[in-house]
């Protein structure tokens, strides 16, 4: 904001020149000749507490403030848990930040929207071009309607980082086995059989943490779905309706079961954690590892490790790929004035800008935006693999879903039943029935 210095009305006569000059000299002597813009300070919470992450945000704030004199960002770093109850309490008291990272889903962002603690940013999305910068599949995760419908209505956040689940492969292990990088699912399954025959572990897996099995099942399900035909899955995840009794999900579960029967997974995978599995894969103990891009920093030193989308299912040209974003940046109702709201939105827009995206890439992270002309660090070919897949997926609006978003308890049900499936205690059909039972019960609790 700015202040204007108001002088008494002076008639434009020769006799008034001296008083006007005297007034100007007086103002200059008081340091008021050119008044500074009044500072607009915005409090911002984020969860980027790793050194390489916090360096990116600190530099972004420094650059933002240099480009916007008089606008200041008072940053504070918090834990993920702080973005839940503590943030809600702070906003309810009127003392919370104007900008905060907010966890997606009904229990967090949905609850804050319901209590009118977040500010809808549709006008700013139009002003800054977010709806063209980001595909619908990313923005829908941060939309809530006035009736509390997840995935539609007003936009309440924009994320800076992305993630996806795909196929890591060790090129040296494949070369030793005389196997080219598989491009299709039939080629992939032929490679698994050949590796097993040669005594090499085909797929690294650690199921102890639960979510890994769910991610694998989701990956095998969603790679059968064409991006242009995603509405059925979107409706299911966003609780519009539908059923988990799906033939493609049955096929995905059957594939997992078959791979287990054929011995394609690392021996003892049921009792091994995901991070231990990642370390073993990093050290060359298997040819493939189906997991998320959050491991690419760990894998960077091993130049034999590469990343790709899952090998193509016949007949599917642009499949969905399981993934999402990190916590989006939201504007809260403590941004009470138009000036505060404008500064908050301007800051959020800068955090998701091309310049900050390149800083994320340089630091080894995957930005949520997908600029094909981004400068990639020459010393990180694995990141180049990941970014190429990311830009392709988003060009097709093909970012899929973590299936556990469908209900508050779906994660537990999904993880438990994947364990049961691989222990031969339930069939693929029974797995889908149990997931659907959980889903239909939850739909009955929703009231609009």
Question: What would you call the structural class?
Answer: alpha/beta
Average predicted local confidence, pLDDT: 90
The description of the largest β-sheet is: 5 strands, mixed
Helix fraction?
40-55%
Question: Could you please say which CATH topology of the largest domain applies here?
Answer: D-Maltodextrin-Binding Protein, domain 2
End-to-end separation: 41 Å
User: Radius of gyration, rounded?
Assistant: 26 Å
Per CATH, which architecture of the largest domain? 3-Layer(aba) Sandwich
CATH top level assignment of the largest domain: Alpha Beta
β-strand percent reads 5-15%
Principal-axes geometry comes out as globular
Number of domains: 2
- Contiguous uncertain segments of 5+ residues: 1-37
Number of strands: 11
Listing every helix as H and every strand as E from the N terminus to the C terminus, the arrangement reads HEHEHEHHHHEEEHHEHHHHEHEEEHHHHH
- Total helices: the number is 19
CATH superfamily grouping of the largest domain = Periplasmic binding protein-like II
Description of the structure:
There is one protein chain. This protein starts with 16 loop residues before the first helix and ends with a helix. It has helices at residues 17-29, 51-67, 85-92, 106-114, 122-128, 130-133, 136-139, 171-177, 185-198, 211-222, 231-237, 247-261, 274-282, 296-299, 338-351, 354-362, 381-395, 410-422, 428-445, and strands at 40-46, 71-77, 99-101, 143-144, 154-155, 162-170, 203-204, 288-292, 305-308, 323-325, 329-331. It is an alpha/beta fold. The strands form three sheets. Strands 6, 7, 8, 9 and 10 form a five-stranded mixed β-sheet that branches. It is 44% helix and 10% strand. Mean pLDDT is 90; it is low at 1-37. The chain has two domains: 40-161 and 326-370, Periplasmic binding protein-like II (D-Maltodextrin-Binding Protein, domain 2, 3-Layer(aba) Sandwich); 163-323 and 399-445, Periplasmic binding protein-like II (D-Maltodextrin-Binding Protein, domain 2), CATH 3.40.190.10.
